[in-house]
# Entry
Amino acid sequence: MIGIISFLGFTILVAVIAYFATRTTDEQSSDGYFLGGRSLTAGVIAGSLLLTNLSTEQIVGLNGSAYKDGLSVMAWETLAAIAMVVTAIFLLPRYLKGGLTTVPQFLATRFDVTTKTITSILFLTGYVVVLLPVILYSGSVAISGMFDIPTLLGVSDQAALVICIWGIGIIGSIYAVFGGLKAVAVSDSINAVGLIIGGILIPIFGLMAIGDGSIFNGLDILVDANPERFDSTGEPGQEVPFSTIFTGMMLVQLFYWGTNQQIIQRALGAKNLAEGQKGLLLASFLKILGPLILVLPGMIAYHYFDGGLASSDLAYPELVRAVLPKTLVGFFAAVLFGAILSSFNSVLNSSVTLFGIDIYKQHINKEASEITVVKYGKIFGVCLALAAMFIAPLIADAGSLFNYLQKINGIYSIPIFTIIAVGYLTKRVPAIAAKIGIVSGSVLYIISEFFVGPKLRESAVQVAKASGVTDANALTLVEADAYPHYLHVMAILFAANMIIMLIIGKIYPRKEPFELEYTKQVSIEPYKYVKQVGGVICIIVIGIYIYFAK
# Structure
């Protein structure tokens, strides 16, 4: 009962603060609704960026990966810091100079409206079909299990799951659809503090459990027991082989933190360039600490349970259940609930933005007033939320989707990042090159990763088994050697798409070179120490890799 009271208390407190913080924002204008009135400051941007990135499928999934592979999976966190530095220095000044509300808006100016529409549809498809249902399902499993909802309400596991899905979906929809970006960003910032506190408590209590009450003894025991697991350089066959850091991993990070509407929308709402850059740099510094929450607990769980869990995805929830004092369960559940809501309402708000600005205003009602655009964007958001709530219970096992989701995202992430990079780096590559690049990139990735790759890997394993190889680790290496890692495939296709677009640009160049105009929406005076601070952050990341490299 204490847990439920503390859960409700913290959740209601966040909602009340978000309500009072957004009362004066003009939600009738597109800037007010979609970008928080272009008034977001560095702290709010940083908090919202971090919380938007975190949700149960990542907290549970990445710790599960760490349980299996050790420290090398920290690349998903630490390299994000470098990607945010690049975004702050290179991309954000161009976004704010162009006065963008959505990333695809730039593509309409640089190439043409069709390119923008294709990109928006790709974003929306990825959000609606993949992200929203998975976030709802995995979050509901966590909340239902933490509070034992089936017993509490006297219902079946399936019924409890559906109740949690609709509860999270409705509350998240209220934030995202009716509150706009500022409500999302403010609630995210508060929850960010709670998540950092709650997230760090798990490894603290875990280390204390290992070290008989001493954190440092626990850490010494953890390192001494399995020193090879504290290696920053992943091996072939693992989730993040070291070589992928220099190929597709950085491309995925640059797409996610620099061009993904769900994420970059926070920085687009900055009151000026300096605040946006400071927000990104603050978030990038905090992201370096991410492995403490998203990797270390999984490694502790491996030692605590002696590697004996039935599934690596059970590592985090089982560790929480084993080491967290009962009095803190309600607070931690509220923080986790905030992370679930954050990812759900952030994806939903970005979907509403993309539909309202890039589809409704562009193709359905070109004469629509800003009030009308916001109105129909909200209606679309409600429809998306309902669809996600109906689809979510059909997902059988959200935990196993973590690594699979990374592959699925490659269908649209690399093609979109390619045309944005070419768009900013060149002046004469034409619109037809962008269309060919985005279509060929998606099609080739699908063929490579979902048809050719699996067949070659399966054939290699069958040949190895026929030759007498039975060791699981040896078979994993055989499978890894049979076809390039999907992150390498992404890098190969990125390079191929770039070359194709540049060749087309050479043969059929634009008649007039593209020039980015300053719309004067906000000041684009940069933060004067952006390069110095960015450089320090990059040095820290490289230093961490060198220190832990075996």
Summary: The domain at 27-548 is CATH 1.20.1730.10 (Sodium/glucose cotransporter).
